[in-house]
Amino acid sequence: MTKFKKSKTKLAILMLSLGMLGSIQSVANAEELTGTLAKIKDSGVIVVGHRESSIPFSYYDNNQNVIGYSQDYSNLIVDAVKKELNMPNLKVKYLPVSSKTRIQLLNNYTYDFECGSTTNNLERQKVVDFSNSIFIVGTRFLVKADSNINGIEDLKGKNVTTTAGTTSEIRLNQLNNRDKLKIRIITPKDHGDTFNALETGRAAAFLMDDALLAGERSRAVNPAEWKIVGEPLSYESYGCMIRKGDTQFKQLIDKVIADAQTSGKALESYNRWFTQPVPPNGANMELEISPKMVELFANPNDKALD
């Protein structure tokens, strides 16, 4: 045994005899930190990515606070990081991201994780990792309630809008090319602008995840003027996004999500954001929980659905 190791062992025995085992463990844990947790520990700051207008997942209230169903998970994760690092006063910063910027900004270390409305799919898994799923959606259309549009077959030759950088944009382009639908695709930068394209008549339909469509409909001047139609073009799972290969951070986040889902806390959050009036204007998504979500809460997992 080297002199250094002997000294370290003697120090540990002395500290143990003085009832300081907890201190030894804390030092060991600090030495073992890797990836994002080590970064946060060293900087004293955790940077949380969020969306600005993904109602009711992640968006601003009237006071510019970030709120929503996904933000509930973010808050639980931040609390768990504070506890794991024994840093109750850890500084928390919030960074708005868009569908186009969220992966790049994560991978260049501008922020540390994002819980919003980001689909976990095999293509994205090549460059980032995802937590246990937090939501399962079906991709459908939002249209005028008095229109005769009931699905993609009724949109041939028409303008359809979807948000840039989303899986819905990819899916719409695939179907448009495959079936020669001659759809003209409009792709604004965020969901609010996309709904505006529909409201102002520039598009006949808005393709997006049904839960997000319910959010956009809820903030319309007259929500009853709009309806969600069509069989889902696909089912997708949302997860919190972290840097690829960050096993330690993923394990912490997965446990937080699984605990929330199996304890009933996630169901309470779902009901608050999808079946009741929500800030800032008291809109109601009126979206009862689906069988797929019930199954997810019973069996938390990080599976992509494509």
UniProtKB/TrEMBL annotation:
Residue intervals of the Solute-binding protein family 3/N-terminal domain: 45-277
Signal sequence annotation: 1-30
InterPro entries in alphabetical order: Bact_solute-bind_prot3, Solute-binding_3/MltF_N
Entries under SUPFAM superfamilies matching the protein: Periplasmic binding protein-like II (SSF53850)
One Gene Ontology CC term in the entry: outer membrane-bounded periplasmic space
Pfam families in alphabetical order: SBP_bac_3
Domain of life, per lineage: Bacteria
GO terms, biological process: amino acid transport
UniProtKB keywords: Signal, Transport
PANTHER family named in the record: AMINO ACID ABC TRANSPORTER PERMEASE (PTHR30085), GLUTAMATE_ASPARTATE IMPORT SOLUTE-BINDING PROTEIN (PTHR30085:SF2)
NCBIfam families (alphabetical): PRK10797.1
Family: Belongs to the bacterial solute-binding protein 3 family.
Name under which the protein is recorded: ABC-type amino acid transport/signal transduction system
Source organism of this protein record: Frischella perrara
Source lineage: Bacteria, Pseudomonadati, Pseudomonadota, Gammaproteobacteria, Orbales
